[in-house]
Write a structure and sequence with these properties.
By secondary structure, this protein is mainly beta. Strands 1-2-3-4 form a four-stranded antiparallel beta sheet, with no helix packed on it.
């Protein structure tokens, strides 16, 4: 699986990490699909353009679901 998901910082921790969460929903011609993402990132690992590689996310939780023909 490959793609991008925009997330927001849900919690900043004293140790320099943050809990991030995001969700992406798509309405397709044959159904709906959505992905939810959360995890812990080191703020120092966030690039100047506010991106981070998924390999730098601890305790990543990815949920993918769909309905209709995409299910």
């Amino acid at each position: 699986m490959s793609g991008t998901v925009a997330v927001t910082i849900a919690e900043v921790r004293a140790n320099g990490t943050a809990l991030v969460k995001g969700e992406k929903r798509m309405l397709l011609s044959q159904g709906h699909e959505w992905i939810q993402f959360s995890g812990i990132v080191r703020l120092a690992d966030v690039s100047p353009d506010n991106r981070i590689q998924s390999t730098r996310v601890a305790d990543a939780r990815i949920e993918y679901a769909g309905n209709g023909a995409v299910d």
